[in-house]
Amino acid sequence: MMLTRGLRCRVEIDLRVSFCASLFTGKNRKKCPMTNQKVKILAISGSLRSGSINRALLEAAGDVVSDEFDIEIYDGVESLPFFNEDLEGENLPDSAAVLDKAIRAADAVLISTPEYNGAIPGGLKNLLDWGSRPAGSSAFGGKPTAVIGASPGQFGAARSVGMTTSIVEAIGAVTIGRKFTLGGAFERFDSNGELTDEMARKSLEDILEGLASAVHNPVSVSQ
Ligand SMILES: Cc1cc2nc3c(=O)[nH]c(=O)nc-3n(C[C@H](O)[C@H](O)[C@H](O)COP(=O)(O)O)c2cc1C
Questions:
Q1: pLDDT tens-digit map of 117-161
Q2: What does the alpha-carbon distance between residue 157 and residue 175 come to, in Å, rounded to a whole number?
Q3: In this structure, are residues 62 and 87 in contact, taking their beta carbons and an 8 Å threshold?
Q4: How would you label 41-59 residue by residue, b for 16+ Cβ within 10 Å and e otherwise?
Q5: Which of 23, 27, 70, 86 has the fewest CB atoms below 10 angstroms from its CB?
Q6: 115 in ligand 1 pocket by Cβ < 6 Å?
Q7: How confident is residue 34, by pLDDT bands cut at 50, 70 and 90?
Q8: Residue 16 burial by CB count (10 A; 0-12/13-18/19+): exposed, middle or buried?
Q9: d(Cα 185, Cα 195) in Å, to the nearest integer?
Q10: How far apart are the CA of 177 and the centre of ligand 1, in A?
């Protein structure tokens, strides 16, 4: 689907960071109509599990959109130490610096999170605390961001998605006002990990189009 309302795109330096795996080349990219730049999405999974359905959902994102998105999955959640203000500034861990660069280099962020005990997973909250810094200059400031979630249960991690959305808004991100939670998630993928549920594919596409629209029509945000 082509976007017709785009007035301008953010042009970012193409930083290839060590914790990001470039997933999608060729067809799975979306370009800014004005600059021909692809819309760079940093995809973050709240689950560390190798067989994660939230990770699978992020991997499916590249399949449901046309050829002008550039979606990279951030793989550094485990490398981040617990957030500690003593580690800021000169003492900033490399992993936190890499995260900061990855967020700032992306046009938009897509987070897919499970729900743990009715809440956001600790590792993801820790990542968002790092991403909220330095004070007054959050890496998420003004960043178009969407939060989605998946769970085997019927509610699709809805409580965690709600909490995570509140947190990213608190740290300055611009959320897109579209929601997508995937319940019964294990049944929505085939044995090859492909998202086969048509409604889920369409919902995921809508989220990505919402992010692209927010990138092309930025709002000014004061922190
Ligand atoms: C510690 C723990 C707590 C959980 N709490 C919830 C919960 O509150 N709500 C829910 O829907 N699922 C809960 N689950 C089940 C997860 O939704 C399920 O393990 C899911 O597959 C995790 O996402 P992932 O596949 O991306 O790792 C919990 C799982 C764990 C390990």
A1: 999 999 999 999 999 999 999 999 999 999 999 999 999 999 999
A2: 18
A3: no
A4: bbbbbbbeeeebbbbbbbb
A5: 86
A6: yes
A7: low
A8: exposed
A9: 9
A10: 24
Q: Is the CB of 118 under 6 A from ligand 1?
A: yes
Chain segment 46-63, per-residue pLDDT in tens: 999 999 999 999 999 989
Structure tokens belonging to residue 34: 């004005």
Q: Does the C-beta of 147 come closer than 6 Å to ligand 1?
A: no
- Point out the ligand 1 atom lying closest to the alpha carbon of residue 114: 23
Rounded distance from Cα 119 to ligand 1 centre (Å): 10
| Average pLDDT score, the chain | 86
Q: What distance in angstroms lies between residue 47's CA and the mean position of ligand 1's atoms?
A: 9
Distance (angstroms) between ligand 1 centre and the Cα of 203 equals 21
Cα 22 from chain centre: 14
**Atom 22 of ligand 1, nearest CA residue:** 114
On whether the CB atoms of residues 60 and 23 are closer than 8 A, the answer is no
> What digits encode the pLDDT tens for the residues 67-85?
789 999 999 999 999 999 9
* Pair 46, 59: CB distance under 8 Å: no
CA 8–ligand 1 middle distance (angstroms): 40
Residue 22 predicted with pLDDT over 90: no
- Strand-strand pairing, 174-175 and 144-150: parallel
Of all protein residues, the one whose alpha carbon is nearest to atom 23 of ligand 1 is: 114
